[in-house]
Design the sequence.
């Protein structure tokens, strides 16, 4: 159940002086059905100011000459809320619990502990911007910097094992986002020309960092309970979308390259269930972070960011008389992605008869040509990818597991989104 009810009261005040100085003030108090019983109404004020500089006397000469058509500085600060969770997270719920004395019974849901202090997510933001039109409106720009703090975000936490409840929805998650956004537009042809072309470039450079975690933690790992592969790391001071991966350093060229535990004389190993797999030539060289000569989840590192650092678009509108062409592009820069498709394709060498299928009976991957990739094939090879033919040890070693830095790639791209060619028939008199 995701429905919620909300109520709010608000007031606003606006003032401008000769359209030169503009002030907008608002004040709201809000409450939602998903707010805990211990929490009062939330107060949300905001203020926005604007200075239209082209109306100042010192801008008259530039404006009369056509150099500046409009120029404004604006700034804003405000706070608002977003409902999170459900009414059951705040107050709990009763569920069917079986039979007692041959009669169906209703009891409390002990899986989730109600949170009487549950609050909506609160966003406090401020921004400053410069916007203007220049040279007879041929050049337009908006330059803006912003800072946004989001508090009381929802995160499910595990309760202590001596508690009657299993989990609880907590509001102790917060992060900040700050950055720079811009828009640049240019129109080369004069007004009145049969030709019209407007090209626009926009973008945003964003950074994000966690500022609070539940129970005053500095680190929280959200484990992938479905595939046990794609865990997510929440680390104070870092972005909230870090990958949790094995650090891939290459391939062991020979058995002699594998580190040996000086206290036991055993080669570095990996344990899967009750089976021990000792590393050998052709196996992946994963970093033994804690130095215990055993590769396991304790050796996983926090790297990358699945969220892009830079996003934006390029738009072009070109027209001549009744013809027009509109094209749109988008781009992303600085995003770290996991190439799971390549991992499955390389892993398919351990299943040459293609018995691995998804739920719909489709093959999960196809065999790739061996000469396309630099595999380890024999003792002494210095290769990029591990031995693809170690069938007996593949199930335990899993050398092509996707959750390793071997398959973390730069997800930057420039994408052509669409093009629209249009002809407008003239209207008959």
Sequence:
């Amino acid at each position: 159940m995701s429905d919620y009810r909300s109520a709010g009261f608000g007031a606003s005040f606006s003032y401008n002086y000769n359209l030169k100085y503009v002030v907008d003030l608002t004040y709201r108090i809000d409450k939602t059905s998903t707010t805990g019983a211990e929490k009062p109404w939330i107060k949300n004020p905001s203020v926005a100011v604007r200075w239209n500089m082209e109306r100042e006397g010192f801008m008259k000469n530039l404006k009369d000459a056509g150099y500046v058509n409009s120029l404004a500085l604006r700034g804003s600060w405000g706070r608002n809320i977003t409902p999170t969770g459900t009414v059951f997270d705040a107050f709990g719920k009763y569920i069917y619990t079986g039979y007692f004395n041959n009669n169906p019974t209703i009891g409390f849901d002990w899986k989730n502990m109600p949170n009487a202090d549950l609050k909506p997510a609160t966003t406090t933001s401020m921004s400053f911007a410069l916007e203007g039109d220049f040279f007879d409106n041929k050049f337009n720009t908006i330059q803006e910097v912003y800072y946004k703090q989001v508090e009381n975000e929802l995160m499910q936490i595990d309760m202590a094992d001596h508690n009657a409840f299993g989990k609880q929805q907590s509001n102790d998650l917060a992060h900040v986002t700050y950055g720079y956004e811009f828009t640049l537009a240019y129109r080369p042809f004069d007004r009145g020309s049969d030709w019209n072309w407007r090209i626009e470039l926009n973008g945003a450079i964003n950074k994000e960092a966690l500022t609070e975690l539940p129970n005053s933690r500095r680190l929280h790992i959200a484990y992938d309970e479905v595939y046990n592969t794609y865990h997510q790391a929440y680390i104070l001071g870092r972005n909230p979308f870090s990958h949790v991966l094995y650090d891939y350093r290459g391939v062991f060229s020979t058995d002699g390259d594998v580190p040996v535990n000086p206290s036991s004389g055993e080669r570095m190993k990996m344990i899967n269930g009750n089976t021990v797999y000792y590393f050998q030539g052709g196996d992946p060289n994963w970093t033994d972070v804690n130095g215990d000569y055993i590769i396991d989840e304790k050796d996983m590192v926090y790297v990358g960011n699945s969220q892009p650092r830079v996003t934006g678009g390029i738009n072009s509108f070109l027209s001549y008389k009744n013809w027009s062409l509109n094209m749109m592009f988008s781009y992303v820069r600085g995003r770290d992605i996991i190439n799971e498709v390549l991992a499955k394709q390389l892993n398919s060498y351990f299943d040459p008869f293609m018995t691995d299928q998804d739920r719909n009976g489709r093959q999960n991957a196809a065999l790739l040509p061996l000469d396309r990739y630099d595999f380890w094939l024999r003792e002494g090879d210095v290769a990029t990818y591990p031995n693809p033919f170690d069938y007996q040890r593949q199930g335990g070693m899993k050398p092509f597991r996707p959750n390793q830095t071997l398959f973390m790639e730069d997800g930057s791209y420039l994408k052509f989104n669409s093009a629209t060619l249009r002809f407008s028939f003239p209207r008959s008199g």
Notes: DSSP finds four helices and 24 strands in the chain.
